[in-house]
From TrEMBL:
Coiled coil feature spans: none
Organism encoding this protein: Acer saccharum (Sugar maple)
InterPro entries named among the record's database cross-references: Invertase/methylesterase_inhib, Pectinesterase_inhib_dom, Pla_a_1-like
PANTHER family from the UniProt entry: OS02G0537100 PROTEIN, PECTINESTERASE INHIBITOR 12
Name of the protein in question: Pectinesterase inhibitor domain-containing protein
GO molecular-function terms, A-Z: enzyme inhibitor activity
Highest taxon listed in the record's lineage: Eukaryota
Alphabetic keyword roster: Disulfide bond, Signal
Keyword Signal: yes
NCBIfam families for the chain: PME_inhib (TIGR01614)
GO cellular component, one term: extracellular region
């Protein structure tokens, strides 16, 4: 089955060789500057936005060095999908390890449900984004941010419990925030 996330990867793979050739060093610098400008603008808008996560995440994907604002949004969505998918594997490993008490195991199972739904939601958001429905994409991605927060908060329902998914939840939240900020920037154009 062809998923929107597969389409995004395909789109970025096809787009990258055409835009980023060895002779476009100046163009690449301009696109890297576009990443910096975008991350700076988003950090100025939101107090919870992480400039560092934005910059390092987007710059780590070669396709982002040769794309526009729409392409950066797709990169952020793809990174969020990858994060959520990898987190599902991590959660399954933690559950199967048997090293958590019943409360923590229930929390992990709740997180597994949140992340599984999050992947589907992010794919739906990507579809909405690709059809120019930025507000709809914003709503979908915001719900995934809520899912990461819900997962994190579940462990704090009992005193003395700390989420083993703190890093995963943080990065999913931040990657979604990057996408939402870019949606908002695009909507303002």
């Amino acid at each position: 089955m062809w998923h929107f996330s597969s389409f995004c990867c395909f789109f970025l793979i096809i787009l990258t060789p055409q835009l980023a050739t060895p002779s476009t060093t100046i163009g690449t610098v301009l696109f890297v500057d576009k990443i910096n400008q975008t991350c700076t603008k988003c950090a100025e808008i939101s107090t919870i936005f992480s400039y560092d996560v934005c910059l390092t995440s987007l710059q780590a994907v070669p396709a982002s060095h040769a794309t526009n604002l729409q392409g950066l949004a797709l990169v952020a969505l793809e990174l969020a999908i990858q994060n959520a998918t990898a987190s599902i594997c991590t959660i399954k490993e933690l559950v199967s390890s048997g090293s958590f008490d019943p409360f923590e195991t229930i929390c992990l199972m709740d997180c597994l449900e949140e992340y599984s739904g999050g992947v589907v939601t992010l794919i739906e958001a990507t579809g909405a984004f690709l059809t120019g429905k930025y507000e709809e994409a914003n709503v979908w991605v915001s719900s995934v941010m809520d899912a990461a927060t819900t997962c994190e908060d579940g462990f704090s329902d009992r005193q003395g419990h700390v989420s083993p998914l703190k890093k995963e939840n943080y990065f999913l939240f931040q990657l979604c925030d990057i996408a939402i900020c870019i949606f908002n920037l695009l909507s303002a154009l």
